[in-house]
Amino acid sequence: MTIWARFRDGWPRQVAMSEHKATIDWKLTGPDFLKGKYSREHTWTFDGGITVPASSSPSVVPVPYSNSAHVDPEEAFVASISSCHMLTYLFGASRQGFQVDSYHDEAIGMMTKNERGIPWISLVTPRPKVAYRGERQPTPVEVAQLHHLAHEQCFIANSVKTEITVE
After folding, report:
1. How far, in Å, CA of 34 to CA of 89, rounded?
2. In 19-42, which positions are buried (b, 16+ CB within 10 angstroms) versus exposed (e)?
3. What is the percent of the chain where pLDDT is above 70?
4. What would the pLDDT profile of 65-85 be if each residue is shown by its tens digit?
5. In this model, does residue 19 exceed pLDDT 80?
6. CA 164 – CA 121 distance, rounded (Å)
7. Residue pair 109/78 in contact by the 8 Å Cβ criterion
8. Residue 92's closest CA among 19, 159, 20, 166?
9. How many whole angstroms separate alpha carbon 13 and alpha carbon 10?
10. Is the peptide bond prior to 64 cis by the omega test (within 30 degrees of 0)?
């Protein structure tokens, strides 16, 4: 849904098409907050009702203050890019008449330091393996075109400055 609004300068502009919500909850569980000795475990609750256990990455904050069994923001960022690419790829494949049987991606995100010395996820590399069924099988050129279009049209890829290189 596209919503248009007329601003003070008289020109109409497009405003939010949709809204996406997440609720983040954390609670202090120990006495050493000011010493930095506190759990980073928290939850993410999404508008559909699912609650996901989350934590800082143990590569950033050591155990026991992080929990490696929980999703960390860096993993979620990589998963978000990979998931968006997959969903856009599946849409494109279906529109071009290719029956996708399965899609598996072991995406990797690389954290580096920027020019100011601040860590950031500078590169995400989706490495999808796609299987097709049916008589019509895409050529390697068509697969590359589908991945290119998926990258160009992915909402998340268009929202970040991180380099995304599909292998």
Report:
1. 47
2. eeeeeeeeeeeeeeeeeeebbbbb
3. 90
4. 999 999 999 999 999 999 999
5. yes
6. 10
7. yes
8. 166
9. 9
10. yes
Q: Are strands 51-54 and 42-46 parallel, antiparallel or unpaired?
A: antiparallel
Q: For the whole model, what pTM was predicted? A: 0.86
Tokens read off for 49: 């009702």
Tokens representing 119 are 């860590």
Beta-strand ranges (E) seen in 19-93 are 22-25, 42-46, 51-54
Say how far apart CA 85 and CA 51 lie, in whole Å. Answer: 23
CA 116 to CA 97: how far, in whole Å? 47
Closest by Cα among 80, 86, 73 to 149: 86
User: pLDDT tens digits for 41-64?
Assistant: 999 999 989 999 999 999 999 999
Residue 77 makes CB contacts below 8 A (sequence gap 6+) with 109, 121, 124, 162
